[in-house]
Amino acid sequence: MIQTEHLINELQSHGVRLADPRAGVASRRGGAGPSDHKAITIGDTTVMVPVHTAPAFESPYLVEAPDETGQSRIRRNGVDLGPISFPKRPRFYDLTTEDGTPYSKIAVLHGKDVLATTVLQTCIRYQSRTKTCQFCAIGQSLAAGRTIERKTPAQLAEVAKAAVELDGIKHMVMTTGTPPGNDRGAAILTESARAIKAAVDLPIQGQCEPPDDDAWFARMHDAGIDTLGMHLEAVTQSVRTRIMPGKASVPLSRYFDAFAAAVPVFGRGQVSTYILAGLGDTPEAILGISDRLIALGVYPFVVPLVPISGTPLESHPAPTPAFMDSILSPLSDMLRAANLLAGDSKAGCGKCGACSALSIYEKRAAA
Ligand code: SF4
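Above: the input record for the complex with iron/sulfur cluster. Below: its predicted structure, written as tokens.
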């Protein structure tokens, strides 16, 4: 089989066709962040691979129908590349709350052992075409009835406890649409984390825009949020303004001030940011920002753009494998030199790593 990090770049760029579309755990469609994915496992690495995007329908990669144990094989233009498998459907998906809400509408499995939820499924940035982040589908899963608008702290605690006990979930990601108000979602993440931690010992990542008051970082941490994600998405101001006109009104300088204030609270390597490669930023721009982030102790989680169906970017090309390699290869060297590694993160997207080949590059560099 070709080197794993290059195969992951290939699969995340081209997507895959599934001989049996029902294979594996139900894929994420819509929602906040990258979507239209399905988790597959290559060796001991689980990655999210696009299956519902336009490129995926024409992908040279085909995954055969799995056998009864979830084992399958992957082919490129008919040539067998080796075995893959699918994570099992989690058992907590079979449960419902007392008020009749399926657990799977409250939180879902990401990768192989991450519980993920969008605490608030609406967003001030998603109200109009002129303000919405063009890559985001936070309203689609809500409109389709696959989730509920507001997950209460009690619901999240109930589902998290079950997911740990029934499925061995190792950490949790809580993201949120941005509500009106100056805390930018920090308040609902704080109350949610407090309830979850009272119910179960589970490392949690909170993800939100920088709140207007840095005092929120200590409140979030004290409530049980172990790691914090504040996501730049794009790094060049012209790209930010074009792709996410609402969110770009928060200047990069505010993000960097917030990073500098958050790292002493959460710890070096426990604050991270998502950077979506393929939106128009050059590799030099992404690596330049990453250099500044690493100097602050912030982990730059660079992932390939997934052009989600139904969003304004659905016809936008995904970044090529060569483009991803031109960023992830030098970035992994920078991260290793700074000893700021995905494996040292306590919770969240950096630790999961399934949306990017970055953590595999880090391990390769260590070999
Ligand atoms: S990297 Fe983050 S968004 Fe991607 S599968 Fe893992 S937890 Fe989910």
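Notes for the reader.
The first strand starts at residue 17 and ends at 18.
The chain has a mean pLDDT of 92.
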